[in-house]
């Protein structure tokens, strides 16, 4: 889950829903035709491993709030990551390699044995998948990974900030887009633009959410819609 706290309430977004919004952003970029066709599929599916985990809310008893993707226990999370990568690889090996690279990057320099083992296994997977690529495809992997991370962060920006605000620490200085900083600028609470603008035309993204209170009771369900303007 992606969790945004509102006082004694928690706004929850499922990870796969957020990933689909990430792909919406990718498809509208001016430069999207310069990337491997599998890049958008990787972006859309990069969190598919979270679908089983997000069917049930896991509560952090120590913090008395829902676990988010940032503090979710590794024991169930790592197998879910692996299963998601394997699912993507089965449909599209290039996209599977990108998702593997994305998740392996989370565990650079870690000390947890399970995380180290996960990273090593994914690096092995990547080398195997690269043997089936031509030189141009291999050379484009890092650029496609940057695209995935940019679109991932932009979707997270919408989920982790209250509409109309930019208070979450990750995004206050803007988002890195291939060496350029793009600053999210709200125009009210439902209209967002990036400066400078990377998109071909205006569009709308929509993501479902649910709200639970501190007593773990569901309070609300709905759709968050944001108009992206140029």
Jot down its keywords.
two-stranded antiparallel sheet; seven-stranded mixed beta sheet; 9 strands; DUF3891; globular; alpha+beta; about 230 residues; 7 helices
Short description:
Pfam families: DUF3891 (PF13030). The protein is an alpha+beta fold and 230 residues long. The protein has helices at 15-27, 38-45, 74-91, 93-104, 113-130, 135-139, 141-160; strands at residues 2-6, 9-13, 59-60, 65-66, 175-177, 180-186, 191-195, 203-213, 218-228.
Describe the structure.
By secondary structure, the protein is an alpha+beta fold. The chain has one domain (2-228). The protein is built from seven helices and nine strands; from the N terminus they run E-E-H-H-E-E-H-H-H-H-H-E-E-E-E-E. The chain has a seven-stranded mixed sheet. It has a two-stranded antiparallel ribbon with strand order 3-4. Helix 1 packs antiparallel against helix 2 (38-45) and helix 3 runs antiparallel to helix 4. The model has no long low-confidence stretch (mean pLDDT 97).
